[in-house]
Amino acid sequence: MAERLFFFLCAFVAISTAVGVVASRNPVRSALLLVLNFFCLAMLYFTLTAQFVGIIQIIVYAGAIMVLFLFVIMLLNLGSPEAQMRERELRRPLAWLLAIGLFLVLVSQVFVVVGGQSQPRVEAGTARVIGYAMFTQWSFPLLIVAVLLTVGVIGSILLARRRSA
Amino acid sequence: MTAVPMSAYLTLAAFLFAIGAAGVLIKRNPIVIFMCIELMLNAVNLTFLTFALHQPSLQAQVAGHVFVLFVIGVAAAEVAVGLGIIVVIFRLRETIDVESVNLLRE
After folding, report:
1. Residues in A touching B61 (Cβ below 8 Å)
2. Which of B1, B69, B89, B95 to mutate to test the interface with A (most CBs of A within 10 A)?
3. Could you say which residues from 13 to 52 on chain B have a Cβ atom under 8 Å away from some Cβ of chain A?
4. ipTM score of the complex?
5. Of A26, A95, A135, B36, most Cβ neighbours within 10 A?
């Protein structure tokens, strides 16, 4: 019962902050609501016995990536009232229609795929097991992601550099 | 065994994904569009972890968690490059409204 209550609390906050991200016209407010949303998702990851991924979610997403977002918003001065976008963006019925249709299509599959339940294992979410799998079975994809991150960081530095020289 | 059914997690993930998709279509500020893409990626991560919990073998369960970590890594690279592009566009055009960046349409 307590688990169920915790899930619905987290799900409610996650849904309301997600709606807030889209509905808010101030990008700073959107970013802070998104941080709250990531925290709720991390709590849900914990209930799915994914401890390591939940911690990484808080450190990488709520910490590093959102700081990057806030920094760029600050750099471009987008939080000021005159920089905020005009009214009409929430009145796009076709976009809402497409989103609702997408939701219905996805939900129609939810109850189809849910089949036999197997025994979940708590140790699958620990850093020890995940680290072992990453450096043995998944070592090549791990290297590819490392190269991708390095190239991405170098590329963004080259992009954002001022060409004065 | 968790007291919350798998379908509840999947429905929540579907809702978050749809909200993110609506945001991508609606918003005109590319930074908020990026946030909505992050929202969609997180919904997919939630689906990965939900299915990972119900896999028969330990190896398959760990594979789901590893996939989520790869998604987080790729999302970090994507955000770095995307925000770099936004900064360059702002320097060139003095605005980042996606409807004013339409050079290829004309």
Report:
1. 120-121, 124
2. B69
3. 14-23, 25-29, 31-32, 34-36, 38-39, 42, 45-46, 49-50, 52
4. 0.89
5. B36
Token output for A147: 């190269």
> Computed from CA positions of residues B24, A63, A3, B69, in that sequence, does the dihedral angle turn out positive or negative?
positive
In angstroms, the CA B38 to CA B17 distance is: 10
Token output for A82: 């005159």
Minimal CA separation from A152 to chain B, in Å: 5
Task: Tell me how far apart the alpha carbons of residues A82 and A162 are, in angstroms, rounded to a whole number.
Answer: 26
Q: How far apart are CA A123 and CA A93, in angstroms?
A: 46
Give residue-wise pLDDT tens across range A130-159.
999 999 999 999 999 999 999 999 998 888
Neighbours of B81 (CB within 10 A): 15
Q: What is the pLDDT of residues B9-63, one digit of tens each?
A: 999 999 999 999 999 988 888 899 999 999 999 999 999 999 888 888 888 889 9
Q: What is the gyration radius of the CA atoms in chain B, in angstroms?
A: 18
Distance from CA of B102 to the nearest CA of A (A): 17
Closest CA to A66 of A33, A41, A31: A31
CB–CB contact A110 B35 (8 Å):
no
The span from the CA of B45 to the CA of B39, in Å, is 10
How far is residue A43's CA from residue A137's CA, in Å, rounded to a whole number?
28
Contacts of A137 in chain B (CB under 8 A): 59, 63
